[in-house]
């Protein structure tokens, strides 16, 4: 049995796989500690005394567990991971608002592993995204078709940027970072309307709008790192992302125009004397004194 397989058997396949990844990290502490653990693991395997070897192996398991916990508890999500999650949020939000299929879910069907990872990563997210609308937006065929086309681009774009994500992240820290992003960008990028009719619908449009800028700015701002991760694909991916954002903004602009031109239904106020229509009102004065509310 090779040393690599033996170490996986003793310390766990996942632990060894993660440690190998850490040895390749740009973080000096992370890579240094991971390499030092491997050096010690190899030394332990040279010990001939079985009892002594077992003792050191047990201590090594504890050391690995403590090291991984330390990293996991303090891992900071990368800008790309936050851009990816925001894109998935956007995809789900558009789906629930417009009443169309979640675009990325169609894309991941081609890869079983990717499909499983996606479901794991986004199950809580999909339940958490709400629109505040009683029903989906009522839009013209032209605008609905525009959303369907731009949403398809969004699904493919998410597929493209998926490969840049870290293999390990802390969900709680990620959620906290996303909430802070939402707060900052919703103030920085505001979609303005000319009137206050259909406020709930317009609020959803505002939620969609500022997410465009989170995705684009984070992804572009992280470009040097992304180029290293995928030098052959980065230029094509960033071009596709920009095209997608342009198409989504166009769909939202069409929606904005429709909402601003939409006339709210005004309910006719009931006349308090309408119930007496057709009655003989010869005693009008006495009836005026009645409580007809």
Can you describe what's shown?
This protein has helices at residues 3-11, 13-23, 28-44, 50-74, 79-99, 103-107, 112-128, 141-162, 171-188, 199-221, 223-229, 234-261, 284-288. It has 293 residues and is mainly α. The longest helix has 28 residues, at 234-261. The termini are far apart. The relative contact order is 0.10. Mean pLDDT is 85; it is low at 284-288.
Short description:
By secondary structure, the chain is an all-alpha fold. It is 71% helix and 0% strand. It is built from 13 helices and no strands.
Approximate strand percentage: under 5%
- What proportion of the residues is helical, as a percent range? over 70%
Number of helices: 13
Q: Can you tell me the residue ranges where pLDDT is under 50 for at least 5 consecutive residues? A: 284-288
Secondary structure category: mainly alpha
Q: How confident is the prediction overall: mean pLDDT? A: 85
Compute the CA-based radius of gyration. 29 Å
- Biggest sheet overview: none
Shape designation: elongated
Distance between the termini: 91 Å
Reading the helices and strands in chain order gives HHHHHHHHHHHHH
Topology, please?
Blueprint: H1 3-11, H2 13-23, H3 28-44, H4 50-74, H5 79-99, H6 103-107, H7 112-128, H8 141-162, H9 171-188, H10 199-221, H11 223-229, H12 234-261, H13 284-288
Give short descriptive properties of this protein.
293 residues, mainly alpha, 13 helices, 71% helix
């Amino acid at each position: 049995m090779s040393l690599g397989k033996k170490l996986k058997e003793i310390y766990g396949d996942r632990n060894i796989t993660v440690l190998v990844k850490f040895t390749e990290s740009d973080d000096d502490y992370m890579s240094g500690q991971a390499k030092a653990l491997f050096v010690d693991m190899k030394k332990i395997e040279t010990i001939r005394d079985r009892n002594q070897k077992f003792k050191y192996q047990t201590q090594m398991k504890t050391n690995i567990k403590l090291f991984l916990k330390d990293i996991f508890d303090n891992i900071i999500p990368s800008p790309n991971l936050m851009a990816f999650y925001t894109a998935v949020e956007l995809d789900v939000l558009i789906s629930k608002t417009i009443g169309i299929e979640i675009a990325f879910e169609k894309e991941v069907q081609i890869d079983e592993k990717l499909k499983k990872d996606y479901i794991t990563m986004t199950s809580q997210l999909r339940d958490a995204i709400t629109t505040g609308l009683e029903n989906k937006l009522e839009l013209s065929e032209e605008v609905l078709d525009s959303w369907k086309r731009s949403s398809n681009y969004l699904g493919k774009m998410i597929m493209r940027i998926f490969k840049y994500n870290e293999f390990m992240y802390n969900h709680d820290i990620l959620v906290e970072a996303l909430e802070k992003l939402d707060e900052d960008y919703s103030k920085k990028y505001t979609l303005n309307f000319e009137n206050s009719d259909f406020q709930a619908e317009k609020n959803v449009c505002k939620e969609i709008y500022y997410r465009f800028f989170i995705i684009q700015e984070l992804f572009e701002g992280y470009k040097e790192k992304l180029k290293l991760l995928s030098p052959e694909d980065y230029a094509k991916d960033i071009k596709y992302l920009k095209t997608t954002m342009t198409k989504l903004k166009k769909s939202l602009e069409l929606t904005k125009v429709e909402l601003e031109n939409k006339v709210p239904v005004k309910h006719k106020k009931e006349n308090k004397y309408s119930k007496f229509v057709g009655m003989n009102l010869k005693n009008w004065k006495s009836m005026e004194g009645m409580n007809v509310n």
